Amino acid sequence: MKRSSKPSKKVVGVGYKNNNEEVRIDWEMRPGGMLVQKRGLGSSGDSMIKIKVSHGSSHHEINVPSQSTFGDLKRVLAHETGLKPKEQRLLFRGKEKDDEECLHIVGVTDMSKVILVEDPASKERKVEEMKRNQYILQAYEAVAKVRVDVDKLSDKVIALAKTVEIGSKVEDKEFVVLTELLMVQLLKLDAIQADGEAKVQRRIEVRRVQSFVDALDNLKARNANPFANGSSAMSVTTKWEKFDSEVGSLTAPNPRQKTTSKITKDWELFD
Predict the structure, then answer these.
(1) Please, which pLDDT band fits residue 253 given cuts at 50, 70 and 90?
(2) Please, what is the Cα angle at 44 between 33 and 70, to 5 degrees?
């Protein structure tokens, strides 16, 4: 009796434990030497499975096709966790899995447990970013605190300006004290370490304080010499009336009054 030469399928069983339960995966060798997972009756390649993903204190249940890759699972988890796929590391049975590895090939079945951890380099970058944001926030708060103090001092500068404008005399020490208080605020701003937008806000406040200091210097000068300002200086002019003898009158005529002189000569006749 002649035996058939047609190769038969070889079935290999591989066992492992999942949640303390024995799980067996059967593999079959297809013609050509390809080793694939043996499918049960009525099964399909795109059947959905539920995977339990543990991420720190959080737990997620993700539904994916059974023949998905770990890269596919990462993309789904990105929507659930907010972590980008490149920031994720997936561990199954204590080993990290590559994105190209298929879930069903390594034995991930329905209700299998996968552990998600954040990539250490990514986590370190986020920590540095949080520190930087906190650093910028502290700089903002410091500049805002100085701005409040400068606002109070600006009210005093405006009050002094009004006093000088109406011609009232102000003691020099008021200008000196107010200038010193503004210089203290400049020192505070100089001590603030700031980057980015906080640095811009600090620069704006420094210019603002300097403008008040310059205004006080001008007010102090006007207070010492009210007539020093060219806009308020008095212009004095003198007009002289000339006679035939080229001798000037000591009294200036009213410029609005027109004077006319009529000279007549009367002669007396003698015999």
Answers:
(1) very low
(2) 75
Q: How far apart are CA 167 and CA 156, in angstroms?
A: 17
Structure-token pair, residue 78: 């990105």
| 217-247: pLDDT as tens digits | 999 998 888 765 544 433 333 333 443 444 3
Which domains does the chain show, CATH number per domain?
48-118 (3.10.20.90), 124-224 (1.20.58.120)
Task: Order the strands of the 113-118 sheet from edge to edge.
Answer: 58-65, 48-55, 113-118, 88-92, 95-96
Rounded mean pLDDT of 195-209?
91
DSSP state of 246: -
Tell me the residue ranges of DSSP E strands in 19-144.
21-30, 34-37, 48-55, 58-65, 88-92, 95-96, 113-118
Token pair 């590391």 is found at 89
